Amino acid sequence: MRSRLIPVFVIITGVMTFCTSEKKPGWMPAENPLFTTWGEALDHTDPWPEYPRPAMERKEWMSLNGLWDYAIIGKDADRPAPQGRILVPFPVESALSGVKARMTDSLALWYSREFVIPRTWKEKQIVLNFEASDWETTIWVDDNLAAIHRGGYDPFWCNITPYLSDRKKHTLVVKVTDPTDMGRQPRGKQVLKPGGIWYTPTSGIWQSVWLEPVEKTWIGDVRLVPDIDKGVLYVTVIEERCQGPEGCPPVDMAPSLAEVTLASGGTTVASESGITGTAIALSVQGARLWSPDDPYLYDLKIRLITGGEVTDEVHSYAGMRKISLGVDNNGFTRLMLNNEFIWQNGPLDQGFWPDGLYTPPSDEAMMYDIEMLKKMGFNMLRKHVKVENRRFYYHTDRLGLLVWQDMPSGDEYIWGDKPDITKSHADSALFMNELTRMIETKFNHPSIVMWVIYNEGWGQYDTPAVTDYVAALDTTRLVNSASGWTDRGTGHVLDIHHYPDPVAPEAEKQRATVLGEFGGLGLPVQGHTWEQKNWGYEKMGDSTALLRKYEEFYAMVRQMVVENGMSASVYTQTTDVETETNGLMTYDRKIDKMGYANVRKAMAGNGK
Question: Is the pTM of this model over 0.90?
Answer without folding.
Answer: yes
